[in-house]
Protein 1
Amino acid sequence: MAKKKEQIRIAADLHAKDRWFAIAKTLLTLAPLVAVGYLRMFPGGGDISALLSENPQITVTFLSAMTGPFTAYLIGLAQKHLYEGDAAYLMTHLVLIFVAEALLRNAVYMVIMTFLMYLVYQMTGVSPLASVRGKWRNHFFRDLSGCFVLIFFCSFCLFASLRIGM
């Protein structure tokens, strides 16, 4: 009986920080809408496709913003594993998403991912380095394939932005 009460308390503690994950996922999901609003401010912003084809810097910025909803999806997917008792899965996802945001040079989302990593560490005691080491030995590429797709796309955006001098 005491063990069941302890499990309920632990589950309640994990859900206590849900609002921070919801805020992060909402901000990531709204990133493309903010990018479209930003594009509308430019002269000729009514025709977004023409604006994207004329200016490669705007195109790379727009593509970078489009990673937000996929990142939010990955966080939500990994968050489910936290509730199933696999905190290392979520922490490793957050580390790899942090790497992806660093490739995009997006300081705001890097701070958000750092804060979420801190919350997961505070709730579970699983450190980022220990989680990556643990996952490295246990289906690293299979479990984290979505993060690697994100990192590949962010690397492409970094390469394009460096080529055009951003």
Note: The two ends are 60 Å apart (CA to CA).
Protein 2
Amino acid sequence: MNIRLEFYKNILIISPIGELDHFNIEKFRNKEDIQIRRKKPSNIIFDLSRVTFIDSPGIGYILGKYKLCMLSGGKTAFVNVNGNTRKILEISGLLKIIKICPTVDQAILAIEKGGL
């Protein structure tokens, strides 16, 4: 698994590639935490276009980032969610609290306009 982190204004775009599971989360958590502390984004977009699997620690990871955003008054969004990943997000209940946008650009626009 690999992960790409991008920043746009006060938005962190997290793009995991591969399986979002316990083993892989631990590999990139330190790198990500350093970036988050340095840039202090208040909003997060998860681009899930290249995620092949999410397990319960992966769900917990997403939920933890969602809670951080809530504490800072920010928003969280999913983009590019495929069929299998969508089912996992639905079963976990995450889709009740985090909205899906079709693209990163549309999620950025929704966040900037106060939507989501």
Note: The chain has a mean pLDDT of 90.
Protein 3
Amino acid sequence: MLKINFILDDNNKEITNAIFTCVGYERNLMYIHLNNDSIANKSGTRSDEEIKAAESKKIKLEEDNRRLEEENKAVEDVYKKTLSEISSASNEHAANDYNAVRNVLRLVACGDNKKFYRIAIITDMLYGEMYDSFSALHSCEGADFDENGIRIGDKQKTSTAKKIMEQVQAITKKMFSISIQNTYTKKINVKFNKTDMGMLHECFVRGVDVNINKDSKGNTSFGGYTMKTAIAKYKDREGNIRYEGKTFNELLAKLAFQYICG
């Protein structure tokens, strides 16, 4: 059984069973999420055999979803009661956050399936400022590197790195902390150290895309590079700037896991 370091009393079977019931409930929700994603994935042209195989897979996934939903229904009362008691705990200075409690439970479930890390965090996050800070620190202009291609540091970069540290500490506290000890859990305060931040920075740039320009005559030309980053910036059909941060959330979840189950 996976170690959980935040249960208030490991020797109390009622408490431990309630926590693991909640973890199992969230695990089932994430399996259903993955199953639904697989069912919805119908890209490309397929042969008759592939269509039959896909339909058979869809039937199995839908059956699996029904089983998971039935399992959750059987323990729903325990799940709701436990989650309510943990999330409603408060004092004159702070209160536990409902979504943070769920995030913690979902992180525990990630020990069963590494695909869960990408969908574990349910807390809403605004990625724009974080994207700007990381992009400024990890820019790839000629002046950023020495003659051997090694990145050069400067005071402005240090200031940006400190700003990122503050931003990350704020969001991880919001996402994963249980501020008030309660009937079921100890106080949890997730705070990334310099090694965690180093891994976050090293993984922020995921690769590079080659840009190809095409003119009205169909001629193509090299249009430079675009860095692939954990937070993606793009324009929607109406021309509005949007951000997508599933990969960034996955990184945060993986780095936070050690503080929940380490």
Note: The radius of gyration is 22 Å.
